[in-house]
Amino acid sequence: MKLNSVLFSTALLSVSNVAQAWSPTNGYAPATVDCADDINIIRAADGLSESESNWVAKRDAVTQAALKTFLTRATAKFTDNSLLNSLFSESSNVPRVAIAASGGGYSATFGDAGMVAAMDDRTDGANEHGLGGLLQGTTYLAAISGGSWFTSTVVFNNWTSVQDIINQMGDNDGSIWDIEQSALTPGGSDTAFTNQRFENISSALSEKSAAGFPTSLADVWGLAFSYYFFPSLPEGGIGYTWSTIQDTDVFQNAEMPYLIQLGKAQIPGAVSVDFNSPTIEVTPYEFGSWEPSIKSFAEIKFLGTEVSNGIPTTPGKCVEGFDNVNFMIGTCTNLIEYVEQANSAYYNAIIDQLATLFLGNSSKSADRTLAIYSPNPFKDTTNYESGSDTTFVTDDKLLLVDGGIDGQVIPFIPVMKQEREVDVVFALDQTADADDKFPNGDSLVYTYERQFTEAGKYDAFPYVPDIESFVELGLNKKPVFFGCDASNMTNLRYVPPVLVYLPNVAYSYASNISTLQLSFTAEERLDLIRNGFEAATMGNFTQDPEFLGCVGCAVMRRKQEKLGLEWPEECQQCFTNYCWDGSTKADIKNTTSIANNTSTSTTTTTDGLNYTTILTTIDSDAMSTIHFETSTTITCHECEEATPAPSIAYVTSTAECEENADWDVRAITTISCGDEERIQSNTHKYTTVSSLITTTEVCTECAEVEAQATAVTSGNANGDNNNDNDKYTYGTGSKTSTNEHTEEAVSKSDAQSNVSSVTIPTVLQVTTDIPSQAGSSQYSVIVNENAANNMGIQHLLASVVALGLFIGLS
Ligand SMILES: *[C@@H]1O[C@H](CO)[C@@H](O)[C@H](O)[C@H]1NC(C)=O
Ligand SMILES: *[C@@H]1O[C@H](CO)[C@@H](O)[C@H](O)[C@H]1NC(C)=O
Ligand SMILES: *[C@@H]1O[C@H](CO)[C@@H](O)[C@H](O)[C@H]1NC(C)=O
Ligand SMILES: *[C@@H]1O[C@H](CO)[C@@H](O)[C@H](O)[C@H]1NC(C)=O
Ligand SMILES: *[C@@H]1O[C@H](CO)[C@@H](O)[C@H](O)[C@H]1NC(C)=O
Ligand SMILES: *[C@@H]1O[C@H](CO)[C@@H](O)[C@H](O)[C@H]1NC(C)=O
Ligand SMILES: *[C@@H]1O[C@H](CO)[C@@H](O)[C@H](O)[C@H]1NC(C)=O
Ligand SMILES: *[C@@H]1O[C@H](CO)[C@@H](O)[C@H](O)[C@H]1NC(C)=O
Ligand SMILES: *[C@@H]1O[C@H](CO)[C@@H](O)[C@H](O)[C@H]1NC(C)=O
Ligand SMILES: *[C@@H]1O[C@H](CO)[C@@H](O)[C@H](O)[C@H]1NC(C)=O
Ligand SMILES: *[C@@H]1O[C@H](CO)[C@@H](O)[C@H](O)[C@H]1NC(C)=O
Questions:
Q1: pLDDT tens, 752-761?
Q2: Where is the composition biased (Basic and acidic residues) (predicted)?
Q3: Which carries the bigger pLDDT value, residue 601 or residue 273?
Q4: For residue 566, how far is its CA from the centre of ligand 6 (angstroms)?
Q5: 693 or 159, greater pLDDT
Q6: Does ligand 5 lie within 6 Å of residue 76's CB atom?
Q7: Which mutation among 20, 200, 203 tests ligand 3's pocket best, with the greatest number of atoms within 8 A of CB?
């Protein structure tokens, strides 16, 4: 970035703005207007506002028709349509849908845009190979940070469509989202342009300060970025107010969902926010928080009015224009403090320079990175709960940051609220918290955990696994439904909506991009949007033609449960495929996938036994989802001399098939090898064989060398994955025995037969090379051919492959 030089070369001029817009000043500065003498701009957060309730009632009529169309298409192939018919026979039975669009910088803006486009019947292809119409059936659209950039763009451009934006997308032509140049260097090499832009921003700030309202870098942030969202408006909508939305036809006719964007209030002097910092909702009518330390909502239109317990300190006088769209966007995407805390000398220098450039003598102010709401709309309010921190109602100012800074980067809180009666939440996850900058599910985990804290004590959120399990189970690699069964959530405060999780996954584009990348070419933007479309639709349904119907099932689920209606068998199947079943990483230990075998060969041992060896290459990413444990395999094959065999460390893992549960006994056998075979042991040719029934192979002439097959008795036949049952530790020969987990039945054989009984191998033991290479690792799978013949090796492989697909390894 050439920001430094640009900044230092900037000379500030004072430009007076004459913008045509909606603020009383037609510019960025708020102004005092007349209002009713008895106005109170605050209400207690004891339910939805009347405005919202009335509006939603209007929206319900619109979504009902749209959902009927969508669900009819989604379930067209179902054998039984009685569920659909029952739901639409009564308007109160119609499901309510919400979308929660995550943050994650511009990359989230475009990923969210692509996913929402997939649900929008105005998008090319969305009604053929997408979820077209679902957006028209959506009641709430919540967003955080980069997601707010997306939602603000479409909402404040008269609810335009992503398709419309795509149709005019270009570089350096002033179209919406033309961010070929970063907002921090808007002119690129054209420093005159940059200077002019910064002068415009600077004079906007001066006007606001001159009107008596403190400014900060959050204002700068909002103003600088909005040029790219509202390019057709004077100076990027310099005088555009948030509450203007109330007057638009699309809103009044309830043709769009109800927008909710989130900020977090930070205690003055604190360095950051956490779960207990109040979450602030910014909606078409209101600004406020449900949480204990505020528990009030202010009329958004009158933000900036100096009030005491909601009543203007000057009766009959209110402020308007404080709710500037640019400022509200700047607030909800204000991660400047967060960037500052990353402690990068580079970014800190930029922040210092921006502060010097734009904030004049407040450039060193402690609040310079925070969105300053002064006067504080909640001043002297009494709705907060006793025992909570009173700062937010006593301080003269309220300080806000991006709603995702506490780690909850998907805006679940508002759409999971019991009061909003949502049945299904589509969570679009564009966060980049895994090492490879794809999502790792952490936002779900944080919001899940928050419900057990003070701030979340009125909320409910479905069960999710821990972050590590999330990744290891591959739940971040394809759509997953959480909270599928209301009956399993009776311990929560109330039954939360079904959560349809749609993570950013690379389909046609490497969509794992840093949150801090601030410039994208039109091509990159289109790539991200297209990829988002594909990620929301299982690759336009190519990965699963049933996915459309499955989304329909998720939408209908809560009402179906509530009304006790018949659950279609297609939905049953969908839920088997897409619902998280409660398992965690503990349950997938020792599972692996052999989805991509590259060669199969048959080996005949010196005993004349045949083994099939399948050599498979899996990449190291897939490896990371397997738990490897080292065990020791020792030889005993034709070991007349009973030489203590060398200990060879192998890494073993077991792929477990569903049939397991039906069997009682599982066992692993260690097969030995002679001296010459020891050499071969690097290729693991004779390592292990397993089946449900003990498959024992022991040496003949070596009484003192015992081959042990450890049989583990499964204590449960009900499908539950009990760890202990999956533990196979075995050792043979004269050396190590590592049977610490065997519960019983170490069968010692004194060499009767080479192979004893064999049955369908529903447990497949895989012995792998230690996956030390960065690129790939080979491992071999040895299946006792006798067993394989019984079941058909292909079938076996198919089950394992299916498992691999489920856990996302293929
Ligand atoms: C999926 O559909 C979108 C929207 O119609 C389209 O842009 C994209 O090219 C499609 N992807 C594939 C792989 O067909
Ligand atoms: C907003 O969109 C609606 C429907 O698309 C259209 O009829 C109306 O003219 C638009 N209004 C403005 C101000 O662009
Ligand atoms: C600065 O504002 C003026 C109008 O006030 C506008 O014409 C001009 O395009 C703006 N310049 C930049 C670079 O944004
Ligand atoms: C500096 O701050 C003071 C009050 O804090 C204010 O009166 C003055 O106008 C400011 N100066 C500039 C150049 O902004
Ligand atoms: C994106 O993902 C690919 C594949 O996992 C990885 O190779 C690449 O390093 C990732 N990019 C970033 C920026 O992490
Ligand atoms: C079912 O509820 C239990 C807690 O009662 C929870 O541990 C488990 O994860 C839930 N299962 C699912 C699939 O949500
Ligand atoms: C299987 O391996 C081949 C060759 O390494 C590779 O091209 C192909 O994409 C792999 N297929 C799967 C499903 O991993
Ligand atoms: C594994 O390899 C065998 C033989 O080469 C082949 O028949 C089979 O289809 C392959 N299986 C998979 C899952 O690639
Ligand atoms: C092992 O394979 C060889 C050659 O394929 C065959 O001749 C022999 O009969 C097989 N042995 C057994 C025990 O199946
Ligand atoms: C995985 O397999 C290894 C070796 O067979 C065993 O030691 C370990 O206990 C197993 N882990 C689980 C969780 O079953
Ligand atoms: C077991 O091994 C012995 C000696 O190696 C051999 O004679 C015998 O045929 C083998 N038994 C079977 C069932 O393969």
A1: 333 332 222 2
A2: 738-747
A3: 273
A4: 23
A5: 159
A6: no
A7: 200
Q: Which DSSP helix (H) or strand (E) runs through 665?
A: strand 665-670
pLDDT digits (tens, 9 = 90+) for 493-523: 999 999 999 999 999 999 999 888 999 999 9
Q: Is residue 524 part of a domain?
A: no
Cα–Cα distance between 122 and 118 in angstroms, integer?
Answer: 9
CATH of residue 407 = 3.40.1090.10
| Surface-to-core class of residue 682, CB atoms within 10 Å of its CB (0-12 exposed, 13-18 middle, 19+ buried) | exposed
The last residue of one of the domains, among 707, 731, 755, is: 755
Which amino acid would we find at residue 137? G
- Nearest bound ligand to CA 475? 6
Q: What's the domain count of the chain?
A: 2
Domain span holding position 307: 29-179+228-334+370-431+500-504
The pLDDT of 110-118, averaged and rounded, is: 98
Could you give the CA distance from residue 806 to residue 639 in angstroms, rounded to a whole number? 42
Please work out whether the CB of residue 191 comes within 6 Å of at least one atom of ligand 3.
no
Per residue in 567-602, pLDDT (tens digit) is 999 999 999 999 999 999 877 644 344 444 445 556
Token pair in block for residue 746: 């170490």
Helix, strand or coil, per DSSP, at residue 143:
strand
Distances, alpha carbon 148 to alpha carbons 141, 145, 263, 402, 546, in Å: 10, 5, 10, 10, 31
User: Using an 8 Å Cβ cutoff, are 357 and 7 in contact?
Assistant: yes
In a domain, 802, yes or no: no
* Residues whose CB is less than 8 angstroms from the CB of residue 534 and which lie 6 or more positions away in sequence, other chains included: 114, 118, 507, 508, 540
In a domain, 476, yes or no: no
Task: Pull the structure tokens for residue 69.
Answer: 């169309």
User: Quick one: pLDDT at residue 604?
Assistant: 63
Position with higher pLDDT, 749 vs 210: 210
Last residue of a domain, one of 718, 734, 755: 755
Does the residue 110 lie in any domain?
A: yes
Instruction: From the CA of 610, give the closest atom in ligand 9.
Output: 1
Token pair of 161, please?
């469509």
| pLDDT tens-place string over residues 230-265 | 999 999 999 999 999 999 999 999 999 999 999 999
| Spatial contact of 87 and 75, defined as CB atoms under 8 Å apart | no
The DSSP line for 410-425 is S-HHHHH-GGGT-SEE
